[in-house]
């Protein structure tokens, strides 16, 4: 990891704050932790994320950087408080909206020269310090939105902080950030919630037929409604624009279906076109981070449902000197056997298949 | 598996047809395969799904059951053709809409007494015979929609066929099936497509910020537009009803955001309520098939990125006599270590944690 700040304060030790602290510690930064919930801060400290920030402030004077890892509405007050206490020379936040906290900070009279608004594009379904991971930001974009008044020194310090966490800093104006995340994060949450709401009043017999498609489409809507309402409210204009676009597209699709239901079969062509627009959009979304890259080959092995079966499988793979990059087990309820899908580098797939077959495993390359 | 039919014909050897054939073969059924694409039928036969159906018909007379595994619009013609050739005593299909093929079959003068419309609620992102799996239907619902004229003997034969595939037969009227799948399968596809279409014209810089949420919500929209247009067209009325409900919910959400953008902060409470309706819906959707049930406990272990590491881990677990139900590896690019998440029965979690810790593994229970 590139060198990060020598010292940092992390205000707010939830998932993101604690993960930043763990990443900075791994990069050699001395980290001080603070949270309105003392228990959360102590848990983060116990995980090795840093030391508790003393009430009298940072020992030895201001830290290089303070990271405000608090919800959007709390950013401006936290910044005002931290600056009043002179906790650091430069400040950044991690909130998922940027214009409104910046405006509120200006209204509170904060020093904007030392504040570099930021947003690491990482998250997990779990929350809280115990879910934190030092590698949460590895390879992910980390948006920075310095304004015209922001000091070059603080931009450099906060950029180095993002890099030290393994992230890729991306600079853009705050308004552009807010429009972008409205499209890729906030509106998808609302769309998922609007669809899921139809399931809230559906017959149980209908939901019993649900497969992975419905679960995928609605999953994000399980998030904390209070936190999400705060995020959406802070980015209301841009989110509304995307929602109107989606609603318009849905209206067009419903109109075509009405024509088809009325017997106008030639409208099916327009239906295909509307679905193709969706496919084109999906194709533009970058692939999954962390999981097996598309370039991995997958070898499928039938495994029994008994202790030691996976150990025997991996022992056979290890004996052949092959590193398994990822493993996924497909296991149907009530069946005695499952399928282990082993992801390996493509050049190792043939060797692995041969080694497992020689050891008596039922094995096949995935289609 | 329960006893299936003694003999069966499968017309259409794509993913579903070949999977049915594999499952029936495993249950002891003699299976004959046919597909307009001879290569697909030969591939299925090569996978062990059965023998090629001779041009002159089923050797030894009609089969017990013929499974028509063809797209919705092809069901009625395939049924008429199969009945004209007297391929079987009873017939079923697997199309994802039920009313329209049934109406078309009646219009073609098919014998409806021997036809039991069916729909196994299974699928994969992959298609074609090579993606087929004998356990594709294990534990999944298989909807059957016999009408008043359907013979009891054929209902019994097709029910036994579904059971022999490991599925759970569920009976309901065709119209109810179509309304149910409009909600849990067809409309979600359209909603995903409508959102994804917004990404088709978005700046690349916006999509670079996308995380797993957007990918989850839009993933199903990557499906074959031609096949999906056919499915949606065949179920146009019920799908349209769900879409209008979603569009209405989106309109309400956009309206609340407009109020919030205009400064009416008290509207945030209504936003929370609308999001809560989505959460309530998600909570009603049954959990993932095959994956770890919600009742499994997860034990997290830090593992190195080298051959044999997983073998050592599973050997340690196996030595403790603990059966690992599922494993997931989280591995960030560029980092030397990853985290293996082991799902075990809750009562085994403490033993596994202790056994792994004793063997020197860095281990923790998941939050």
Topology overview:
Two copies of one chain form a homodimer.
Chain A: E1 7-11, H1 15-26, E2 30-34, H2 38-46, E3 51-52, E4 63-68, H3 72-84, E5 88-93, H4 99-107, E6 115-116, E7 118-120, E8 141-144, H5 152-164, E9 168-171, H6 174-200, H7 204-207, H8 212-218, H9 225-234, H10 236-261, H11 268-284, E10 297-304, H12 309-319, E11 326-330, E12 337-344, H13 346-358, E13 363-365
Parallel strand pairs in A: 1-2, 1-4, 2-3, 4-5, 5-6, 8-9
Antiparallel strand pairs in A: 7-8, 10-12, 10-13, 11-12
Helix pairs in contact in A: 3-4, 6-10, 10-11
Structure write-up:
Two copies of one chain form a homodimer. Chain A is of the alpha/beta class. Chain A has three domains: 7-172, Rossmann fold, CATH 3.40.50; 177-284, 6-phosphogluconate dehydrogenase C-terminal like domain (6-phosphogluconate dehydrogenase C-terminal fold), CATH 1.10.3660; 297-365, 2-Layer Sandwich (Alpha-Beta Plaits). In chain A, 47% of the residues lie in helices and 17% in strands. The first copy, chain A, has helices spanning 15-26, 38-46, 72-84, 99-107, 152-164, 174-200, 204-207, 212-218, 225-234, 236-261, 268-284, 309-319, 346-358; strands at residues 7-11, 30-34, 51-52, 63-68, 88-93, 115-116, 118-120, 141-144, 168-171, 297-304, 326-330, 337-344, 363-365. In chain A, the strands form three sheets. In chain A, strands 3-2-1-4-5-6 form a six-stranded parallel sheet, sandwiched between helices. In chain A, helix 4 (99-107) links the parallel strand 5 (88-93) and strand 6. In chain A, helix 3 (72-84) packs parallel to helix 4. In chain A, 54% of the residues are buried. Chains A and B meet through helix 6, helix 7, helix 8, helix 9 and helix 10 of A and helix 6, helix 7, helix 8, helix 9 and helix 10 of B.
